Amino acid sequence: MAAFFARRNGFTRVDLGRCYMLTDNAVQELVRHSGATLRHLSLNSVDDSLTQNGLLALAGQMFEQCTSGKEPRLAEQTLGCVGLEVLDVSWVRSTTDNVLETVVSQCKRLASISVYGCGSVSAFAPVRPGLKYVGRECDTL
Question: How many CB atoms lie within 10 A of CB 68?
């Protein structure tokens, strides 16, 4: 994945929706490459292998994957996706209020987060002026 990114300038819009085998490592490489330029990112329905650690890469937290059952450890802190404005994490079940709190605190330009099918995103998800959630289940009750 790193070789793919090495030959290109930073992306502003990336749609990885339904890339079912997308890994945390792939998202980390995307953030390392395009974190400063990325404005729109769709991770819609990449639920199979993306964990909270992959989502935390958006906030610049790069976790090292450990073998033999050990917990991943924070290996690197980057700026993350500081210019990100639109994020779609619909149907990514590892999306939680806590993950979003970390992402929203680092990605200060975020204006819209789509969270359809994310049952762990509640009314306690972080809010701030100018930020809206689209598809949050607790908003439709």
Answer: 4
pLDDT tens per residue, range 74-102 = 788 889 999 999 999 999 999 999 999 99
| Sign of the Cα pseudo-torsion (53, 56, 57, 62, in order) | negative
DSSP letters of the chain?
-HHHHHTSPPPSEEE-TT-TT--HHHHHHHHHHHTTT--EEE-TT-TTT--HHHHHGGGTEEEEPPSTTPPPEEEEE---STT--EEE-TT-TT--HHHHHHHHHH-TT--EEE-TT-TT--TTS---TT-EEES-GGG--
The pTM score is 0.90
Q: Give every CB contact of residue 48 below 8 A, 6+ residues apart in sequence.
A: 20, 21, 22
Place of tokens 């450890």: 73
Nearest CA to 107 out of 88, 74, 84 is that of 84
